[in-house]
Write a structure and sequence with these properties.
Layout lengths: L1 H21 L5 H5 L2 H20 L3 H24 L5 H14 L2 H4 L7 H15 L18 H13 L8 H21 L2 H21 L4 H25 L9 H12 L12
Helix pairs in contact: 1-4, 3-4, 8-10, 9-10, 11-12
Length: 273
């Protein structure tokens, strides 16, 4: 409890500092910010938190979490100034939500596994929002999510009401089907059709990741990291020959790449031709 009280005092101090920065006579930069102007930074900080977690950098994670909390407090302070709500309202809302949606902890529900918890959460959430004019099941799917994350979230929610493939083989068959349709679209020289089919193929691959118990965003990030690391080795080989990227032709790049593939930790193409 002492640690919680100490953290609470620190959080209150942060809120006071932000309010002072925003007040007359405060910082000109802070005073000119709006909910909209801070949005890119909010998203950026969230990604920097994710990056620190990805690299297991605790020192950086601690700093980035602090930066993210700062922006949350900034947003709440701006809302308070216009009489919309304040940080206490936001904290009360999330606290009440956690209690409502965890009846297996705070009430009498007997859910015992993670899957049951998710289904219970979604059921309570739907009941809470049933009075809204737009009651479509996927109505609350955030449009601002990154595309891979949004696709996986939509698929996961649909699976929650049994709209899902039964077997992994069904998903891989769908990927094969979408790949074939993409090839046919390319052969048709119809740009609009090609774009649509590539989108369908990406959606099917995201579904494959989800059905395999993996996060598509993380998988693509890891694949990109691997490609960058291995492409750097190709660049190093060129430098050893006194050349730089842009000077070598594709045939030479391919030869270096294929030679490195035969060495330990050599490159393995994650895309391309």
């Amino acid at each position: 409890m002492e640690n919680l009280e100490s953290a609470g005092a620190r959080f209150a101090k942060l809120c006071e500092i932000v309010a002072k920065l925003r007040a007359p006579g405060g910082c000109p930069w802070d005073r000119k910010q709006t909910l909209q102007s801070l949005l890119p930074q909010l998203i950026e900080e969230a990604y920097e938190v994710a990056s620190a977690i990805h690299t297991s950098d605790d020192v950086n994670l601690c700093e980035e979490l602090g930066d993210l909390v700062l922006l949350v407090v900034m947003q709440a302070e701006i809302a308070r100034e216009s009489g919309r709500f304040n940080i206490a309202d936001a904290l009360d809302e999330v606290t009440a939500k956690l209690i409502r949606r965890h009846p297996h902890v705070f009430a009498t529900s007997e859910v015992t596994d993670a899957e049951g918890v998710v289904k219970q959460w979604e059921a309570i959430k739907r009941a809470e929002k049933s009075g809204n004019a737009d009651t479509h099941y996927l109505a609350d799917l955030p449009v601002a999510f990154p595309a891979l994350m949004r696709a996986q979230k939509a698929q996961k929610k649909a699976a929650g009401v049994k709209f899902d493939w039964t077997n992994l083989a069904d998903v891989t068959a769908k990927v094969d089907e979408e790949l074939l349709e993409t090839k046919e679209a390319i052969a048709s020289n119809d740009p609009a059709r090609v774009a649509e089919e590539i989108g369908d193929l990406l959606f099917a691959v995201v579904n494959l990741a989800r059905k395999s118990g993996r996060d598509a965003e993380s998988l693509l990030q890891a694949a990109t990291d691997k490609f960058v690391s291995r492409f750097n080795r190709v660049e190093d080989e060129l430098r050893a020959k006194g050349k730089k990227l842009g000077d070598a032709e594709l045939q030479e790049l391919d030869a270096i790449w294929n030679a490195l593939k035969k060495t330990p930790n050599g490159p393995s193409r994650t895309g391309g031709r």
